[in-house]
Write a structure and sequence with these properties.
With 413 residues, the protein is mainly α. 83% of the residues lie in helices and 0% in strands. The protein has 20 helices and no strands. It is globular, with a radius of gyration of 20 Å.
């Protein structure tokens, strides 16, 4: 138990630092937009930065494929160590990158490439961390272990939020937005050191002792169980929209409601607190009731909450916005907390890393990548609330299908 606690703690720390690196960009979109996509219309500048943010999701399936292949053939630890550099080095480049006013269109081009590399890294990072922790722990506590990894992601986002609010203060110089990206680069070295000291998971070691790893694990699972792959993609569609909606709120409030960046980012920080505190409780509950049952309950809650939540966002009134953010994060936490264990149960050890990395990344690309763009578009219409709810309902429905029809697949109940 002591060793499991140490492994859980080190993985949480590493995962939090990795998510800091990915999240800090979206929190600085209102600042970065005019620098790399200058325009008289703030919404146009922000749209350019949001498109770069969305592009980062396009490379996630490729990262899931590469790191998943490495994780299933050569070990989870090696894949997690390799993913660090693909996140840290682009952070350094962004920190030093000249703006559009200095080098013209090359600035946005290099920024886009950096985000592609960071998205590539994230394709093998998050679920690799959850697989590592769950395979090290007891099977009866997989829901709790997976939910703690989810919480660690938002610890990283909260850290990014604190840094963003600090460096958006008026007394800092205009170039101070670069410092958080430099910090992200330094975080990479810390994560690499943490993962260098880790040991491989017992379940993977037991697997390679009994049989030889598949040459291409993702092709093997595609032939063996396509239904599991489809369920994984569908639940990822719902998950991607939930998380990106929470993070997008700071941009929405600045552009369309006239909030200053400091207070808008604080709303994201409030959502992070919910995601840190609630998932471990829900994850432990899912160990008793089953991941699938809890996730279906969460999807129902999010669907019922969606209209009142977007109405609260549309008012721009601080109290209502904060209440809407808390309500949204509570509902989505019920779905997200058991998700890591659900996906681990969906696939066997010999293809788990590849299968989860690819299926989840595909779902994320389709909906999390598009979500900020579509919400920005709907925010400019008179029917913002209704349009947003209609858009959100589609991936939620896909998530419901994926969760419902997973019953009996590799132990899901």
């Amino acid at each position: 138990m002591k060793q499991q606690t140490r492994i859980l703690t080190t993985i949480m720390a590493g995962n939090a630092l990795e998510f800091y690196n990915f999240a800090v960009y979206v929190l600085f979109i209102p600042v970065i937009g005019p620098l790399f996509f200058p325009s008289e219309d703030p919404a146009v500048s922000a749209m350019g930065s949001i498109m770069v943010y969305s592009v980062g999701y396009l490379s996630r399936p490729f990262g899931g494929l590469l790191f998943g292949h490495i994780g299933d053939r050569y070990g989870r630890r090696k894949a997690l160590m390799l993913s660090v550099s693909f996140m840290a080095v682009p952070a350094l480049v962004i920190a030093c990158l000249p703006t559009y006013g200095t080098i013209g269109f090359m600035g946005p081009v290099i920024l886009t490439i950096c985000r592609l590399f960071q998205g590539f890294s994230l394709g093998g990072e998050y679920h690799g961390a959850s697989i590592f922790v769950i395979e090290h722990g007891e099977r009866s506590r997989g829901g709790f272990a997976g939910s703690v990894i989810l919480a660690s992601c938002y610890m990283g986002v909260l850290l990014a939020t604190i840094v963003a609010t600090t460096f958006n203060k008026f007394w800092f110089p205009e170039w101070s937005w670069r410092i958080p990206f430099l910090v992200g680069f330094l975080n990479g070295f810390m994560v690499l050191y943490i993962r260098y000291r880790m040991t491989e998971t017992p379940r993977f070691l037991d697997y390679i002792k009994k049989e030889r790893p598949k040459s291409i694990p993702i092709l093997a699972i595609f032939k063996a169980n396509r239904k599991s792959l489809m369920c994984g993609v569908f639940v990822a569609c719902a998950s991607g929209v939930m998380g990106s909606t929470m993070g997008y709120m700071s941009t929405f409030l600045v552009i369309f409601k006239g909030w200053d960046v400091f207070h808008a980012v604080m709303v994201v920080g409030l959502g992070c607190l919910v995601y840190i505190g609630l998932p471990p409780i829900i994850g432990r509950l899912s160990d008793r009731l089953g991941a699938r049952r809890v996730m279906l309950c969460g999807l129902t809650c999010v669907f019922l909450f969606s209209f009142p939540v977007f109405y609260m966002f549309s008012t721009g009134i601080p109290l209502w916005v904060c209440l809407g953010q808390v309500l949204w994060c509570c509902g989505t936490s019920v779905f997200e907390a058991p998700l890591n264990n659900f996906l681990n149960q969906l696939f066997p050890v010999w293809s788990r890393y590849s299968s989860i990395g690819v299926t989840y990344s595909i779902g994320i690309v389709i909906f999390a990548g598009l979500n900020p763009l579509i919400l920005t578009y709907t925010a400019q219409s008179s029917s913002y609330v209704e349009s947003s709810v209609v858009w959100i309902s589609f991936p939620l429905f896909l998530g419901f299908l994926g969760t419902y029809f997973s019953k009996g697949l590799n132990g899901n109940r």
